[in-house]
Amino acid sequence: MLDDLGRREEAIEAYDKALEMKSDDHETWYNKGNALSRLDRQEEAIAAYDKALKIKPDKHEAWYNKGWVLDKLSRPKEAIAAYDKALKIKPDDHEAWYNKGNALDDLGCKEEAITAYDKALEIKPDKYKAWCNKGMTLDDLGLQKEAIAAYDKALEIKPDDHETWYNKGNALSRLDRQEEAIAAYNKALEIKPDGHEIWYNKGWVLDKIGRQEEAIAAFDKALEIKPDKHEAWCNKGNALDDLGRQEEAIAAYDKALEIKPDDHGIWYNKGIAFNNFGCKEDAIAAFNKALYCSEQNKSSDSDFIRKTIDKLKAEINYSCTTKFLKNS
Fold this sequence. Notes:
Methane Monooxygenase Hydroxylase, Chain G, domain 1, 0% strand, elongated
């Protein structure tokens, strides 16, 4: 009762009093575990569930809750073992199958995760989260068409879920169905207009299909919500550079570099903008910074950046020689 009222510390004290009188009451240990978990005292919660399970090893709820806590602590292998114990006792527990799927996905066991989601959906076909998570796992496997079908199932059940619309947009974009992706992002934004990731991905797609002005507007929306999103500043810079607005592009890259000064990609793009603007020495300076950061980060891009620097230096030398000959 105290736990239900949110008075968990008092509830734990009451459970402890009860356990002093009857230490083998599995329900009290189980309820104490739940109260501890709600207080984010997860290790103590596991210890309480273990006490309950020592007394009543077939209490599937205790196995399930133990699994949930282990998953929360980023211990997916142990979580799966606990879910399996729960499912051995109660094989039709759709929540245990669903959460087992999540834990398997966290471990990178994608095919097994899909099997677990399918089990959950056999039992509860209207569990939209299982459809959505199955879609994300399929997308990770490069099965975008199947992922979209799963997202559509989720949206039949819960059409106002912005995350599903967003994930559907991502899958459509990977299939190069960019106009459909934008439509999906717009649906997500109708539901969650402050979704900075949605605005950012919409901007990325708009830039990809040559609609730079709209892309910049989308990046600006993302940055209104999350001004420290360096990727949005960088891609805004890219769109501005594509439009020939190099000074604004360089200013956007500088904003990105204030947030992430060791990102060699931003330095490289800044160098491109300087070069496009005719400032070749500044371009070389930016490329050199890109190379330094790339080497520090042990990136595979270092050779490519070196070649860019060498090519630009050769262009400058050729230009100087040509001018000298013309003036001779």
